[in-house]
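Action item from last week, closing it out:
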Amino acid sequence: MRILKVNDNTVRIFISFTELADRNISLTDFFQRSARTEQFFWELISKARDEVDFNLDQPFWIQATLASEDEFVITVIKQDDQSETEINHIYQNNCKEKERKKSKSTVHADNDQELVYVFSEFEDLLSAVSLLPGLPNLQSSLYHYEDEYYLAISRFSTPRKRKISEAILDEFGELMTITEAFLIEHAEPVIEKQAVKVLRQLANGKIKGA
């Protein structure tokens, strides 16, 4: 375990999956915010206070992110109301603009078009990706924004597989009009590359410590 203080408002705590396994905690537990992980989280904050003088004395954001195959990082950011308001304003304007353009044209998407789906529950996301067909050329990334999970995907192999994938994703999530560019700028990255592959491994218990 190692703790990095980015600034007075942000700290990153790196934890190996072996350390999690020793405490009988999985990465899924962190995504679901269980009572066990909350207790562990406050132990980490106490350690951060002692080691790097990070005092969590105001509302905050927390995000668990995969860092590598053997390690993940918990990022804790003290909440800034002004920044939050600005992000929400940009998000709302972006959605309105996308809806306006969508109403003018309904051009059929090809296999390379980017899609962004939102999932309110992490378990719904895992269920969806575990049912997707084989997609060897798929590009996918996962982000966390305002307590929801956003899956950005593109490069489906065939029109048929794209149609099947959309039906499955529609069943568990909701197609959004925002772009991955917006998520890159404003959301917290969870899995930046091959998100579907990593999530499938997580669902099948193939990631260490999960």
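Closing note: The chain has two domains: 2-78, 109-203.
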